[in-house]
Write a structure and sequence with these properties.
Residues 379-445 form the ACT domain. It holds the Pfam family AA_kinase. The protein is an alpha/beta fold. It has helices at 14-25, 48-60, 66-82, 89-100, 106-125, 146-156, 185-195, 229-237, 248-252, 278-284, 314-324, 352-363, 390-400, 426-443, and strands at residues 2-6, 30-35, 128-129, 163-166, 169-171, 177-179, 200-205, 210-211, 223-224, 226-227, 258-262, 271-273, 291-304, 329-331, 334-335, 338-344, 367-380, 407-410, 416-421.
Length: 445
């Protein structure tokens, strides 16, 4: 049994609905179809979810929402009309408007995009519609209630039928709708795959799998055929956003592979994400580097104090200062008596001088430096631990291209190396690693 999730670009128009139908009908095992709200049909169009958040803001500020409401309504009327669907949109939108006029919660409002898309898709596919509020259960603390979700599915589902379920939202124990963070439809599909013990979780989007590097930096970067969950986590944390981070955990728990596929190129093999890649590596060899990603605009606070490495609790006291200001710490490289705390630059914009003053007062450092021109480049690869001196080769490549390294951080499992460079060296750093460890290795394979 296969769980499929189709993103917003895959359900943005009549033509995209038709592609989804061909994909679903091509494999009888595709039983659960999760859909996002309609995305952009073209560059001048709007994402339905963006419109719904804007609509809520208008209501909040007492401004007329009729124009935005009409845009959403017209989007679904256009799709339904072109596909000759019989869903009573007038009734659906009348019900939504009634809720809007009684100051509906934001979660209800923004969930209507997925709800309406799923209603339309269910009719078009001849499948049964399941409202996510009747399936995806939250606890009051915001955690998913997996036991309740399983009970809901056992009660509502006949495995001989196909079902379409809206992504992105579920319900609290009192029945109130609760949404996930943006991109949450990925999580809905992942949870359903977990509960139903799916053979595979297919995530259909508008890219053909996961790329080795950002195509805005590397022209036509190679596609990654197979990647581990840990490698993907390393890449996505540092900026490669193909899949919602939280969608990994439910399927990883049961070792269910995720298959990233392109709705517009269904014959492309895409990328498999799975825990065990040994079989693939034995047949095809293991690349030293699986992927290269990163982000610009980090800041580093470097604290130097004699004998601090032997001072019990020194690091805890330093990190507590950032916690007081609700700053998430990205990394903490340490050498003897020198501690560097790396954070996102935007997070400290309003409080950096207060943090510096607090560090001086609380820790009395010999030196204290703030660096705000920092980009972090993550080189990820399960093959690195099999290559003696892989880290040295990576660092040498930066030196060969006259890129100054400011920070180095490597995990003990040798799965990733994170290097800090100047913002202006960011693109060049990614290019030089790609050319040396991706292009050259593939050319000589």
């Amino acid at each position: 049994m296969i769980v499929c999730k189709f993103g917003g670009s895959s359900v943005a128009s009549k033509e995209q609905f038709e592609k989804v139908k061909r994909i679903v009908e091509a494999n009888a095992n595709r039983k659960f179809i999760v859909v996002s709200a309609c995305g952009k049909e073209n560059c001048d169009d709007y994402k339905v979810t963006d419109l719904l958040y804007l609509l809520h803001a208008h209501i909040n500020y007492g401004v007329s929402y009729e124009t935005i409401f009409s845009l959403v309504k017209e989007k679904y009327q256009r799709i339904c009309g072109s596909l000759a669907l019989k869903i009573d949109l007038e009734k659906e939108f009348a019900s939504i408007k009634e809720m809007l006029d009684t100051h509906a919660p934001v979660d209800y409002i923004v969930s209507r995009g997925e709800y309406l898309t799923a209603r339309c898709m269910a009719e078009y596919l001849g499948a049964k519609f399941l409202d996510a509020k009747d399936v995806i259960a939250f606890k009051y603390n915001g955690d998913f209630d997996f036991e309740k979700i399983k009970q809901n599915l056992d009660r509502l589902v006949d495995m001989n039928r196909k079902y379409v379920i809206p992504g992105f939202y579920g319900a609290l124990p009192n029945g109130q709708i609760k949404v996930m963070s943006r991109g949450g439809s990925d999580i809905t599909g992942s949870i359903l795959a977990n509960i139903t013990d799916a053979e595979v979780y297919e995530n259909w989007t508008d890219v053909s799998g996961i790329l080795v590097a950002d195509p805005r930096i590397i022209d036509n970067p190679q596609q990654i055929p197979v990647i581990t969950y840990s490698e993907l986590r390393g890449m996505s944390y540092m900026g490669a956003n193909v899949l919602h981070d939280d969608a990994i955990f439910p399927v990883r728990e049961k070792n269910i592979p995720i298959h990233i596929l392109n709705t517009n190129e269904p014959d492309n093999p895409g990328t498999f994400i799975q825990d065990d890649c040994q079989e693939y590596d034995k047949a095809n060899g293991t690349s030293t580097v699986t992927g290269i990603t990163g982000r610009r605009d980090y800041a580093s606070f470097t604290v130097v104090k004699s004998h601090s490495s032997t001072e019990v609790g020194f690091l805890r006291r330093l990190l507590f200062i950032f916690e007081e200001y609700h700053i998430s710490v990205e990394s903490v490289p340490i050498t003897v008596d020198t501690f560097t705390v790396i954070v996102q630059k935007g997070a400290i914009e309003q409080c950096k001088y207060e943090i510096l003053a607090k560090i001086k007062k609380e820790l009395e450092p010999d030196e204290l430096m703030l660096e705000e021109d920092l980009a972090m480049v993550a080189i990820v690869g399960r093959g690195m631990k099999q290559v003696p001196g892989a880290s040295g080769q990576l660092l040498s490549e930066f030196g060969n291209h006259k890129i100054n390294i400011k920070v180095i951080n490597q995990s003990a499992d040798e799965l990733s190396v994170v290097v800090g460079v100047s913002n202006h060296d960011f693109h060049n750093a990614i290019r030089c690693i790609y050319e040396r460890f991706i292009q050259e290795e593939r050319e000589h394979a």
